[in-house]
Amino acid sequence: MSTGQWLIAPEGISWFFDAGADCLDFAAAPEPVHARDLGEWLAQRYDRLDAGEASDRDLADALALRAAIDRLATAAADRQSLDPDDVDTINLFGATPDIPPALAGGRRQAGAGRLRIGQVLSTLARDAIAILSVEPERIRRCDADDCRRVFRDESRTANRRWCSMQRCGNRAKVRAHRARQAASATPEH
Ligand SMILES: [Zn+2]
């Protein structure tokens, strides 16, 4: 699965956001309105999934899972306790069959050739369970006051500060530069 996605900022500019975890990318994606939107988003990331596979029932499931992941990750980022109802939701999805691991290089297709949406949702739920269980302190918010977007810091040094270097990282650099210029332009007396 490829991570990250292009999002549209309120200013109408598209920017790339990699949330650092598949489940957080899912939560950060624009909310799917139709089953087709959900199918297309998932099919871009999971081979063997047909975009037309998603039903209205899948959409309802996906929206419930997405909302639970979003609230849990936000609570983790803010060092708040996790809502037991949301925990139950991701545990429920995670308890269903996920995408089985497969080693490339074989000759046969093990199991069903096509993925079902339910398997993908289970895999996303298990991803959420993993990141909320292991090093939850790596789930943080973008440092920019007007952003505060939630991501998981995957960097070795655990010092990621921005949702995106191109967006908030650069804006902060520009602001810091202007502040330095303004400070040096201020008369000393
Ligand atoms: Zn940001």
From TrEMBL:
SUPFAM superfamilies registered for this protein in UniProt: Jann2411-like
Source organism: Pseudolysinimonas yzui
PANTHER family: BLL6575 PROTEIN
Gene3D superfamilies listed in its UniProt record: Jann2411-like domain
Pfam annotation, one family: ABATE
The protein's name in its UniProt record: Zinc finger CGNR domain-containing protein
All copies of domain Zinc finger CGNR, residue ranges: 138-181
